[in-house]
Amino acid sequence: MSKKFSPIPVTVISGFLGAGKTTLLNRILNGDHGRKIAVMVNDFGEINIDSQLIVSAEQSMVNLSNGCICCTVESDLIEQLHKLISLRERPEYILIETSGVSDPSKVVNTLCYPQFRQQLTVDAVVAIIDADNFSSLDGDRRKLAMDQLSVADIVVINKTDLATTRQVESFRQQWLYPYARVFETQFADIPVELLLGTELFETNHSPSKSGHQCNANCDHNHNQQFATYSWESDQPLSLSKLRHALKQLPENLYRAKGFVYLAESPKHRCKVHLVGSRVEIEKEERWQQMPKNQLVMIGWNNLDAAHLNQALENCYS
Amino acid sequence: MNSTKITNYLSSHTGQGPGKADLILTNARIYTVDPGRPWAEAVAIKDGRFIAVGGRAEMDALRDEHTREVDLQGRFAMPGLYDMHTHPDLSLAPGYADYLDVGLESPTPDDIAKAILDYAESHPGDGWIYGSYFVHFTFRQAEIEPGCEWLDTVMPDRPVAILDRSWGSMMVNSKALALANITADTPDPGNGFIQRDSITGEATGILIDGAYAMIHAAMPPTPQHALKRAYREGVQYQSSRGVVATKYVHVCEHRLEALKSIDDAGEMTLRVEAAISWQDDIFPVKRRWELLSGERNYYRSARLNANAVKFHFDGVHETRSSYLSSPWPGEEKWRGGLNLTPEHITDMVVDLDRRGIRVISHCTGDGASDLFLDAVAEARRVNGGGVRHQCAHSTLLLEENLARFKELNVTAEFSPAVWYPSDFAYARTQAGEEKMKTLYNFKGVLDAGGVAVMGTDWPVSNINPWIGFETMVTRKNPWGDYSEPFYGEPISLEQAIKVMTINGAWSMGIEHKAGSIEVGKSADLIVLDRNLFELEPQGNLHNTRVDITVMEGEIVWDRLDQFEQAELEAVWKSDQVPTFYERMED
After folding, report:
1. Per-residue pLDDT tens digits for B236-292
2. What residues pair up with B550 in beta bridges, in sequence order?
3. Model confidence over B198-251: pLDDT tens digits?
4. What DSSP letter does each residue of B410-451 carry, written as one string?
5. According to the CATH classification, is domain B3-79+519-585 in 3.50.50.60?
6. Which residues of A touch B (CB under 8 A)?
7. Is residue A152 part of a domain?
8. Residue ranges of the Amidohydrolase domain (chain B) (predicted)?
9. Whether residues A63 and A192 fall in one domain
10. Is this model's pTM higher than 0.80 or not?
């Protein structure tokens, strides 16, 4: 297996039929975002691709002029993943839609198999929930809903016109668990940045395009856009305190990325990857320079910089 | 239950019963599978063998005052069936093992903790607590990370392993990890992984997919009572469906012990060839080499032998791990996987062949069977003629290999019995349209003069052999769920009957004394509620009812309770036979 590529980030999108997955995927496939995204769907039936975008199509794979690829998982996810990995022009990103009948935790487990470790990395697992229908689930659908939520990093509540505030509230009470990261929207209007982590953290990323850099003096309201918060420090952190703090971040903070200096691993740089409620802290190579903590966090609308600063400073070992 | 263990062994000069025929069955339409005499009206049986097969008049000289006679009222009879690959133990025993069952639809961590403690109290000692299930969702709701840290707070001193509801992961405590020798240094298996702390590398106590096997290997074997019950029910069911011989493919010393206890109790109402597992991937076989060197003979009787070994050579079609002769569709190089090197299997086939042990090799891909046939060819070159080895599953076979089954005396065993359209069968049809045309190629092997047999491979497909029997002839869905025929070519009814009877006997090396209704052969015969030659097979053969099963002259199954008189009373009664599926027969 080749190691020369960095692993392709994969986002898994789960949700029942009608929850809004297809609307979202159609938007990504037809969108002008300049990303080579491979979208894996259960079947092409639901997908509606602008025919003018289609460059070439074969039985299970369609190439689009915006760089996207759409393919069906058919019966074998492992095979399709191998196919995508071995393309001469590898996709920059993979989105996998899990059907309303399949268990997304199995898909996530497959992505973590040893054979894919150098090739793929799970970026985010997003469950799209139709609050309108969720309370009436029973039997196997109820079990599947639990699977979808238990593996989700971000829960998107996609309100239809029909869902009342009370329904949304009752969904939250019955189904949500502590520290769930929730994004409420309508018409599956989910910012691509929420799904694809790479966008927001790029070095040439311009805040004016889709976000605003918050700092401790920044107490104004920024609605309907992403806000970022950066933190730096050279004091070592305690791993358990950091894990605890990252778990308890506010509901509207969806992503964090960076490196930390841990007391438990002082010689090695540790990478932080936070998506919604999932926190991964991994040991990497030895520090090349003076160890320090460097984190960037991204939230929707407003981030309380003072609060975040305090939360992170509490992690000093 | 009527314990009728035969202790009057027959030898050259002793054991023969007095008088003439013990049992005469008359007024039947008997299809004998003897090409010299395909049809008969009556048979006479003595000392477990046919002493006459023919017209009613021919029976007259064989009757005396001790002879029982049964008028079959014109019903159809034929030799008993041979299911040459199946697993009642794997299907049933886990359910009978008295493992922990939390018993709630969505148990909370508290519910699970309580269930573990209750189980520990009712099962005192330091043994394993193994069972199902937990639900990741309820742990998230309770803000608990599932894994050994939590499980240790519930039960620190006994090993605990709990499966999750969707069967994707297993939660174990530190004691279980220690007994299974799982540490930060343990490599992941190829088909799953050990979840680890990303900083320390230590196992968290969550094992994914294939990683369960490490726990199973550390656990004590499935309890004897569960194995015994599983096999006993399998035997009961098979006898009730007319099966007189079977192969239980995958056994260990514990399974052989369970089979022997059924045999000793006189309840082994069919012949069993048991194949010792060569690999430990399903369950560990601790006494493998002792068994192979001769300990297997300890279990031997007229009904039971363990003179076979099962190899898991390649993978399965569903995960594209079957080893094909060319890359899988859409792949440049991937041909599937082999679990053993070709050299390993060749040396083993040569060695086991010399020891008189049959090799039954799992080969689902046409590349795997090609290598297996090469291995048998080498055994023939080195040892000369030897044991009839068995190519198991044979899902795909190369055209070039069809004639080699005859040349090399190898049985082509087709299983599971899914050569008809179903969701299950279509999930296994990914090897490309060209290859699919010859899926389960009974016809190709038979036309080339080879021997084909069938196996239900329960629980992979239904243990009722009549479903595979019908669909061999039709390649259509017996219930009409799909209108189109399945891939591959059907065979004739006469060919299918041979596949189900004499061919099975050949694959067990007993075709000279069983498998057809001929004078001198073992009196194995089944009486059906319908004549297979007078019906449209589609939709009408799979639900055949077996009224009577006669095994070595003994009535082992009597569906209609016709033989209540003590001496002919059947071993199994209709109210004793379990039903395992909704759609077992109708």
Report:
1. 999 999 999 999 999 999 999 999 999 999 999 999 999 999 988 788 899 999 999
2. B525, B555
3. 888 899 999 998 888 899 889 998 999 999 999 999 999 999 999 999 999 999
4. EEEEE-SS--S--HHHHTT--S-HHHHTTSS-HHHHHHTT-E
5. no
6. 60, 74-76, 78-79, 82-83, 86, 103, 105-106, 109, 112-115, 143, 146-147, 149-151, 177-179, 239, 262, 264-265, 270, 280-283
7. yes
8. 68-556
9. yes
10. no
